């Protein structure tokens, strides 16, 4: 009987300690959560049709300008791109909240600059996290991932680079505008 009583008492103490430890963990988690919420910087998201110059202004300049400046495209591919008739247009869908967009879009603009591409032929659409805009620029275009670079010739889609290039932005771009076989990252 004494052994049973001791076993019950030990169990009660053990359960009591575990409950107290669990309560302390919950309280600690709540404190951490509150701390993260209060210290998280506010993110200003661009939504709608914009231009490269909008991305070169704060708060976007802190990621756009260094990424554009530091990217070194393949010189041979750039030379080939410069010699192609530039009778195409490009629509870019991106999120200013998206890490892939923050990397790929400045690089893409660097390539366009290096081949002297007319930026009036580029439409930049910034989307919210559900990849939509109030004006519905994305409607009917199956924008599933950002960034998405859509190349058009005579108002007909040639192809697109989705989220990240298969080889490199400039090599993928060359394949698309020379109408070589090309499948983007998410195409089967």
Automatic annotation (TrEMBL):
It comes from Flavobacterium terrae. Pfam families: Thioredoxin. InterPro entries: Thioredoxin-like_sf, Thioredoxin_domain. Gene3D superfamilies: Glutaredoxin (3.40.30.10). Residues 86-169 form the Thioredoxin domain. One of its GO terms (molecular function) is isomerase activity. Keywords: Isomerase. The keyword Plastid does not apply. This is Thiol-disulfide isomerase or thioredoxin. It comes from the Bacteria.
